[in-house]
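pinned: reference chain
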Amino acid sequence: MGQEPPAPGEAVALLTGHTGEPTTIQLLSDRRGSRAWKVQGPTGAVAVKANTPDGDNADEKAAEMAQEDDHLLRLTAAGALSPDYRVGAGTWEGGRWLAVNWIDGA
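pinned: its structure tokens
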């Protein structure tokens, strides 16, 4: 079995201030050009989503990630989302990433 792809280092470094030093980083999904991880630290957890850098549609998925971030910002500005939901977003060597607070549930 191969090694799981790591979460974008740029995201994990930024999120350490939010979650504390990460104790676990768990890959949750790796499909259709996107990957998602749960980053759990002593003071909280976040979901991190990033485009798959080596996929055929990496640029397209990075653009989708930027659009998703824009929608979250607009929904927050309109009062439809809590300002605490979106934790951060940015670029990494493979494209774009987005992080939101973890919400337990099915």
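why pinned: Strands lie at 24-31, 34-41, 44-51, 86-92, 95-101. The chain has one domain: 9-101.
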